[in-house]
Protein 1
Amino acid sequence: MKLLTTILLLSLLTACSDDGDSNNSNNANNVNNANNVDNGNNGNNSNNANNVNNVNNGNNSNNANNSNNQNNMNDMGADMPMPIVEMEPNGGSTLDEVNDGEVDREIQGSIQDAGDADVFKFTFDSGSVYHVTVVPSGDLQPHVTVFDAGRRGDDAGEDYVKIVRTAALAQAEMDFIAMGAGDHFIAIRDARTVDGTATGGAGFDYTLHVTEVPMADRIRGMLQDGSSVSGNLGSIGGLDLYQVTGTENQDVRITLTSQGTMDARLYMIAETTGDWVMRNDNANGADPELDAFFPLSGPMLVVVEQIGEDATGFDYTLIMRLGQ
Ligand SMILES: [Ca+2]
Ligand SMILES: [Ca+2]
């Protein structure tokens, strides 16, 4: 348990801080073999189950508080749930040192010490889109990381990572789509800490709010053989979706060409499983290309994101070709 969580923060501080997902950086194409998910992971699955139980046990006292909050809310007759107030330690240095977060419930936290990291654990619906908002106060420069809590026996952050950062007092916003099995973490630090200067202190407060986004709000169109579409992510943490109909074993190539300085990344998600089946980050310079075959038939979503922390300019062109 200790090992996993040590790696958890290490992965935050190293691999995640550069390009957002080191796994994707160099692989020409990364195909998720559904068979691998099912086979040979029984032992790991039981470990995961234990880890989940440990985390839940560690947070029983929080749950008790939550129910008290719920009662208070009812007493007050309020429509909004009471905010969650972070409880240190929650830096993720052990699996128990995280706080539970909830969609549609504000979290109030503070980077109260230089170098403080706050880690919150969420359960999201696989295949659903969420919007993360961090509103800072004081001199806080929010650095926000969303990452998986560990899948297929891998450590947390090995499968999915997305990062946004802002200048002092600027609100940080991010869309992401939950995919695959298991929970997700959201970690908040000061951006200068990530850059190597431990930063924090009195007044470095923030609120974290996660809401679900209707899928239709992010779907920009449908791709077919020969499609060429232009889009704009809109912001550093934006997310665009395109619908594709997959035919098992058919070759598909989807090429993204970005303008500006964004570092685009592509995923393809099978709607029937809520998990990714293809992904790529840097096939052509910083531009991604999916070049693989559909591992199954059915409706798919192509996910366009960008992971450059200082990116400006979010225009792109997307071209899809189906194989013969
Ligand atoms: Ca804190
Ligand atoms: Ca890229």
Protein 2
Amino acid sequence: MPACPCQSGESYDDCCGRFHRGDAAAPTAERLMRSRYSAYSVGDTAYLLKTWHRSTRPPVLELDPEVRWCRLDIVAHTGGSMLDTRGTVEFRAHYRSGGIADQQHENSSFVRENGSWLYVNAA
Ligand SMILES: [Zn+2]
């Protein structure tokens, strides 16, 4: 089985695939962030929109087919546990586009509503 793009060491099916299929909800903000990174990697735009807070969610999402996501580093996080309703996750997502390596460095905000973590925006 293919390894999960989020580099947890687990297979995709057992890791972020469970969240993408809707078999489970990400229990923490960091797990949601990892699963969203994996969704970008596998091109699951439906999952990205589903986990995007309605206040900031774009009407449609088109992924750049040139971008290949290579590695995710979680830098820091605040809150976001199963006891929290808010959290932030700072990360570096490494990618290649047109043969050029680059990275996205972002501190993302998340809220939990009705038991589900949702991405709000980037600081
Ligand atoms: Zn994963």
